[in-house]
Amino acid sequence: MTTETIEADYVVVGAGSAGCVLASRLSETPGVSVLLVEAGTRERIGLTRMPAALMRTIGNPRYDWGYRSEPDPTRNGLVEDWPRGKVPGGSSAINGMIFIRGAAADYDAWESLGCAGWGWRDVLPLFRRMETADAPDNATRGGMGPQRVSALAWRHPVASDFIASGVAAGIPANDDLNGASHEGIAWNQGSTRNGLRHSAWDAFIRPNLARPNLRTMDGVLVQRITFEGRRASGLAATRNGAALAVRARREVILTAGAINSPQLLMLSGVGETSELAAHGIATVADSPEVGRNLMEHPGLYVQAELTVPTVNAEAAPLRAAWQFLRWAAGRPSPFGVPTAQVLAFLRSHPEAAEPDLQFHLFPYGSVLKDGKRIIPRRNLATILVNVNHPRSRGRLALRSADPAAPIAIHPRLLDDDQDVETLLRGLGWVRRMATTAPFGDKVKALIGVPPAAAGREADIAFLRSAARPFYHPAGTCRMGADARAVVAPDLRVNGVSALRVADISIFPRHIAGNTNATALMIGEKAAELVTQAS
C-alpha cells in the first residue's frame, strides 16, 4: 500500500474548539506552516448551523462519535450516551451553544494547584481577545475577536418568570454572568451569529481557509503519534482507507478533547506501562495518570409541566413551519437560539465558599421515543441543576490497541459523598424554584421527582437513578507542576518532547460552567505558549 507523506511545522490533531483557535492563531505568523487534521468530515448541507438542529445531530453517527459509558456502580449500573462532535468544529458544532467563561476563582484555583500562568489575570485577556460579545459592559468583555457571542434574540415568557423567581428565592440578579461577577441569575448568551450557530470552525477556520500556510484535512483517523526516540515526529494515520504519514518539523499538538486526546497518548505509548503492555503497546513514557481524573458535572434534568404554553407548543407542524420560516427570514425564532434561556450560579447553602450549583432553564421538554428525541405536545420546561466542582473522579481505559475501537468510559459520577450532598441541596433548590412565584405559580408538577415529604432516603435513591453527566468531560490529561501530572503548565507532555496537549483534558479542577468558552481560551493560551517558545 502506498503511503502519502505530508509535512508541516505544527501538526494540530482535532478541529474542535481548542484546535480551531490554535491552528488559526499559529497560522497568523507568515512562514510558519500549520496542518489541522480532523477525523470527522465537512458538511455539505450545513445542518449544524441551525441551532435547533442539535436534536438531529446529537446521536447521529454522521456528526457524533456516539460513545457509550460503562455501567456506573455509583448510579445503579447506569449506561448512557456520551456525545462528542465528529465534524469540523468538534463539539462546538453539536453542543447547546451556551457561552460561559467560568468563575475567576476557577482559574486562580488552577494557579494555586501549580499551574503558573493560568490565573484569572492571565486568562482574562485571552477570553477578551477571542470574542465579539453583546455585553452590557465591555470592561471585561471583548469586541474584536472572531467568536461571536450573542444575546438571545428570542425569549420565552416562562424564562423571564424563572429569573424573577430566582431573585425572589434569593439568587442575585446579574446583567452579565461573563462580566465582573459570575454569581447570580441572568439571560444566557450563546455562540450564535444572526440566528446561526457560530462554531469554532465557523469563527476561526472558515474565514482563513485561503491562508497559504494553513492546511486542513478532514476524514483523518490518527492511529498513533510517531516518535524518534522520545521526540514526537508526526502521525501515522489513514484517510479514505489509504495510509497517511504526517511529519511535524516542530511540534505535534493534541486538541482531540477529553476522550480522544488521552486515547491517542495511550495508543502511542504514553500512559501506564502495565495497561499499555496488556494491549501490546510499547511504552515511550510511563505516565500513569493518562486517562485518569475524569471529571464531569453530575446533575439532574427535571421536567416541569406548566399551565401555560412552552416551546413545546411551537413543535406542532403548522407552528413549527411558521417558526422555521421566521428563522429562515432572519427573524427572532426558537429555531435560532441556544438550548438554555437562563443560567444561574448559586450557593447551595449560605456557608458555601463559592457558588457550587448551576441552573439552566430550557423552555421546553423532550422525551426519547424509539431511540429518537422528540418534543411531546405537553407544556413542559426543563430545570437543570448540576454540581460545579465535583470531587468524584472516573477514568478512561483502552479496550484494545485498535484506534477505531472506542475507549472505555468509567464515569463514577456520584463516587464522592460530598457530591451527593451538594446535588441533594440542588434538588431542594429545584423544588424551591417550582414553588416560588411567578414561575412557581405556573408549575402543575415536577415529573418523576419524589415529594419532599418522602424524605432523604427517597431523594438519594432518586439521585442514584436520575443523575446524569452534563456533557462536560475534562481532566484526563491533567495539567500540573507535580511529577505525576500528564502535562506541565506550558502544555508539554511530561516524559517526551515536541508534544503538547491543549484542550479541556488538561483541567486540574473543574470549572463552574459549560466548557466551550474555556476550550476556546485554551486554544488561545496554547498559541501564545507555542509562539513564545519558537
Automatic annotation (TrEMBL):
Coiled coil: none annotated. One of its GO terms (molecular function) is oxidoreductase activity, acting on CH-OH group of donors. It holds the Pfam family GMC_oxred_N. FAD binds at V87, V222. It comes from the Bacteria. The keyword Transferase does not apply. Keywords: FAD, Flavoprotein. Its cofactor is FAD. The keyword Flavoprotein applies. Residues 257-271 form the Glucose-methanol-choline oxidoreductase N-terminal domain. Belongs to the GMC oxidoreductase family. This is Choline dehydrogenase. It comes from Neoroseomonas marina.
